[in-house]
Amino acid sequence: MTSFARNQWYVAAYGREVGRDLLARTVLGEPLVLYRTEAGEVVALADRCVHRRFPLSESRLDGDRIVCGYHGFTYAPDGGCVSVPGQKRVPRTARVASYPVVEQDSFVWVWVGDRALADPAGVPRAPWLADPEWTTVSGMEPLDARYCLLVDNLLDLSHETYLHGGYIGTPEVAETPITTEVDEDAGIVRVGRHMHDAECPPFYARSTGVEGRIDRFQDIEYHAPCLYILHSRVAPTGVTPGPDGDDSGAFHVEVVYAITPSTENTTYDFWAVARDFARDDEEVSAFLRESNRTVVLQDVEALNTLEKVIAAEPDGYQELSINIDTGGLAARRILARLAAGEEAPAGTGAR
Ligand code: FES
Ligand SMILES: [Fe+2]
Question: Which ligand is in closest contact with the Cα of 84?
Fold first, then answer.
C-alpha cells in the first residue's frame, strides 16, 4: 500500500477551475470542496456535512456560505457551522475541516496535513505559468494509477522514443545518457539529457518552425512530492548562448506537471506547457495543447495498464533497474522518506 507524504503542498486545481460553483476534488484520500468567496479568496473545506455526510460539493452557496443540500446545515468559509434547522443552538462540534490554500502560478495548492506545519513560503514555484512574458497551455487528466508510477514516468524521458514517437520522441532521447543530481535535503532530483545534432520531433518542428537538426536539452527538476518541471531548450544545431548568457537564438519551453495523489490508486495529472516564442500565435497554442494532451493520454493509458498489472501480481515482484532509472529511484527514496516523516517539511532544510 502506498503511503503519502501528508505534510506537503499539493495542487488541487487550477485557479480558473475554482469559482462560484462548488468543485469536488479528493486529495490524499480527503474529499474536498473548493469555491471562491465573493471577495475572490479560494476556500477548501472537507466535503462531508457533519450531520449525515452529504457532500457539500453537491449543495449550494449562499454568499460565502455553503448550505448543505440535505437538511440545510450552513457553513462559513472557516468550516464552522453557523446554523442548523429546527433549533437555535448550533452544537459546538458542528464544524468541517478547513484546509490552508495558496493560489500561485495559476495553481490552487492545498495542505491536508497538520495545519500547524503549513508554510505558504514553502510552496514550490512555477512562475512561467502566470507570467505575461510566456504563453501557456494546460490541462488535467485523471489517472487510474498510483502517483509514484507517474513520478517514475516523468523522471525517465527515454520512454519518449517508444511511447511518444511521432510527437516528442526521437531515437536520440533513448540513446543519450543522462546526468542525475540529487539534493536530498531539499527533496529535489535533477535529471539532464543534452542532445546535440538531433532529429527535431514534430512537437517542436511545427511549433518553432525550425527545420533540420537541432540541439535539444532536457533539464528536469523534480520537487518532491508534487511539482515537476522540465526545462526544454531547442535550437538549430550550433546555435549557442552568447557570452553574455543571451539565449534568444533558442526556443524555450517549460513543461510543468503537478502530480497529486487523489486516492491510493488514482492521481490528478496536471500538465502545462509554457513557451517564450510565437506567443500570440493561436495556431501554435492549439497545436501544443492538442499534442501535449495526446502525449499525456499516451502516458495515462500506459500507466493505467501498469496499475492493473501491479494490482494483479503477487507480492515480491522484482523490477530490474538500469542507468535511465537513476532519477526515478532517487525520487522513490525521497518520497518514501517524506512519507515516513523522517524529514522536516520541504523548504526548511532541517533534518
Ligand atoms: S446531511 Fe447535511 S444537513 Fe443533513
Ligand atoms: Fe510520457
Answer: 1
Closest CA to 325 of 168, 155, 182, 147: 155
Would you say residue 16 has pLDDT above 90? yes
Q: Which domain holds residue 96?
A: 9-120
Name the more confident of 316 and 80. Answer: 80
What's the confidence (pLDDT) of residue 1?
A: 43
pLDDT category of residue 2 using cuts at 50, 70 and 90: low
- CA 18, CA 43: separation in Å to the nearest integer? 9
Give the domain-ending residue among 84, 100, 120. Answer: 120
Domain total in the chain: 2
Half-sphere exposure of 42 (CA within 13 A, CB side): 25
The one-letter code for the residue type at 34 is L
Average pLDDT (318-333) is 95
Banded pLDDT at 3 (limits 50, 70, 90): confident
Closest ligand 1 atom to Cα of 84: 3
Contact of 33 with 96, CB cutoff 8 Å: no
Residue 344 lies in a domain: no
Which of 89, 105, 120 is a domain's end point? 120
pTM (predicted TM-score):
0.95
Residue 306 CA to residue 300 CA, distance in Å, equals 10
CA-proximal residue: ligand 1, atom 3 (nearest): 71
